[in-house]
Amino acid sequence: MFGEIQNLQGNQLDYSFHSGKEDSDVLVVIGHGVTGNKDRPFVKTLAEGLASAGIPTMRISFSGNGNSGGSFQDCTITKEISDLQSVLDVVSDGRRITYAGHSMGGAVGVLATSQDNRIDYLISLAGMVHTAKFAKVEFGDQVPDHGCMWEDEDCPLSSTYISDMNSIGSVLEKGAEIKIPWLLVHGTEDDVVPIEETHEIFEKGTGPRKKVVIEGADHVFSEEKASDNMVQAVVSWLKGQLQ
User: Fold this and answer.
1) What would the pLDDT profile of 74-103 be if each residue is shown by its tens digit?
2) Which of its termini does the chain have fewer beta carbons within 10 Å around, N or C?
3) What are phi and psi of 104, to 5 degrees?
4) pLDDT at residue 22 above 80?
5) What residue segments make up the domains of the chain, in order of their start?
């Protein structure tokens, strides 16, 4: 529907579009977390659930991930913000845009929303808040440019990534500035991004926001019940906002 989308570096960005209502002026863009892509099961399930509710949805793979162009070693939050802005350059004209970001994609959403008024609604799914802490806890035992993420050789740990995570440090203060409607969803059994981070950024803010805690859900909502509850929470909230 939208043709080829490239980022500023000329990398082609892979995406899948779920049509929803043909006459809708709404579009949800879903962004994944670190080492993820647009074809993660819960991402597809969410997109299908939104489309079934009549809400057009696009799931994207950031550059260096999935079938998008670029190198994984260059993947950073900063570059993914730029990737998202390249997508918005193509899709935002005349549309009300919701960005839904998972994990590191949640941090992308907070920072992108704080600087881009084309995002009208924000959804964070197990959203990362303290980026430097995440990098230290998850990858502190690896040597950048020599080690890899979670023992996955397809996901080398780059000094570029570590430097960007440390430079950002945390998105907590930027989250406090967000004034658009914001839904935060997190599972109680998340062992990658602690649910306390969602509690913290939720309490910090003053804009219109809602928090949904899903009992028993892990970081990627892998259990069917957890996935269904996540989709239901997102669809219900967003339909309420759009009406």
Assistant:
1) 999 999 999 999 999 999 999 999 999 999
2) C
3) -60, -30
4) no
5) 15-242
Tokens linked to 8: 């500023």
DSSP letter, residue 11: P
3-state secondary structure of 154: strand
Return the amino acid letter for 219: H
Report the candidate in 211, 213, 242 with the shortest Cα–Cα distance to residue 123: 211
> What single string gives the DSSP state of each residue in 37-70?
-TT-HHHHHHHHHHHHTT--EEEE--TTSTTSSS
Q: How far apart are the first and last CA of the chain?
A: 25
Rounded CA separation 239/243 (Å): 6
- Which fold, 15-242? Rossmann fold (3.40.50)
Cβ–Cβ under 8 Å, residues 65 and 87: no
For residues 108 and 102, give the distance between their C-alpha atoms in angstroms, rounded to a whole number.
Answer: 9
Beta bridge partners of 214: 187
Nearest Cα to Cα of residue 64 among 14, 28, 107: 14
Q: Do strands 209-214 and 148-149 pair parallel, antiparallel, or not at all (unpaired)?
A: unpaired
What's the CA gap between 106 and 40, in Å, rounded? 15
For every residue of 69-132, DSSP letters joined together read SS-GGG--HHHHHHHHHHHHHHH-TT-EEEEEEETHHHHHHHHHHHH-TTEEEEEEES----HH
pLDDT band per the 50, 70, 90 thresholds, residue 110: very high
* Beta carbons of 5 and 12 less than 8 angstroms apart: yes
Tell whether the model's pLDDT for residue 224 goes beyond 90.
Answer: yes
